[in-house]
Specification:
Length: about 150
Amino acid sequence: MTGDPEPISAQARRALEQELADLQAERRLVAGTLRDASVGDQADQADELRRADQLERLDRRIEDITERLREAADAGPAPTDRVGVGSTVGVRFADGATETLQIAEVAEALDQTLVTVDSPLGRALLGRRPGDTVHYDTPDGPATAVVVSIGE
């Protein structure tokens, strides 16, 4: 990654927007339960401190997601001339199998088509163009793949 704002795929944007909405709803619920921590016994005070800590955690994540969405908007759409974050990439593996993969910053649970930029295949694909052959390591040893297409 270059340090410049990186685009994200439409699917990743929707996932982040949904997570943001969920976190904001959770934050409203938690904030509604806070009272004055100096009132009550020690158990009440400890419970209030725990909820305050939870609010801080929620606020940090809300801020992170909001900033990432802002950066993605500044970056514009994923590139279509070279592989980058947010790209959809058609790849043909050495065994002839082809797959369409999404290049992302972070993995999403149970998304088999997502390749992160810090994985061996993700690092190998970044900056490549259709027709390029990439070499990367797998648990079973070295592997190769060919970039077939790039698009949204």
